[in-house]
Write a structure and sequence with these properties.
Elements: H1 5-21, E1 35-40, E2 46-51, H2 58-71, E3 80-82, H3 86-95
Helix pairs in contact: 1-2
Organism: Helianthus annuus
Protein name: Small auxin-up RNA
Family: Belongs to the ARG7 family.
């Protein structure tokens, strides 16, 4: 069983860059410890709170790489934006135990 430490570290760096480039929204303070906010959706973006533990999941890391390719590190919503439909993300996150 291989441990994907470089991908986990890279995912954390992507998240840090994303959060440092965005503006802090008024709802920033309502994020529980151990979670981070992301926006998901194709047309209308919906905010979700997901556990930091998802950063170690390969499927979530793939989504982060897609977000990096599509949006770079400038996220107009002020938080990480995931480029997929909300239904796909909800199914993925539920399968990984996030919801």
């Amino acid at each position: 069983m291989a441990i994907r430490m470089p991908r986990i570290i890279q995912a954390r760096k992507i998240l840090r860059r994303s959060l440092s480039n965005g503006s802090i929204t008024p709802t920033y303070t309502d994020i529980p410890k151990g979670y981070f906010a992301i926006y998901v959706g194709e047309q209308e973006k919906k905010r979700h709170m997901v556990p930091v533990s998802l950063l170690s999941e390969p499927l979530f890391q793939d989504l982060l790489h897609q977000a990096e390719e599509e949006f770079g590190y400038n996220h107009p919503m002020g938080a990480l934006t995931i480029p997929c439909s909300e239904d796909v993300f909800t199914d993925l996150a539920s399968g990984l135990g996030a919801f």
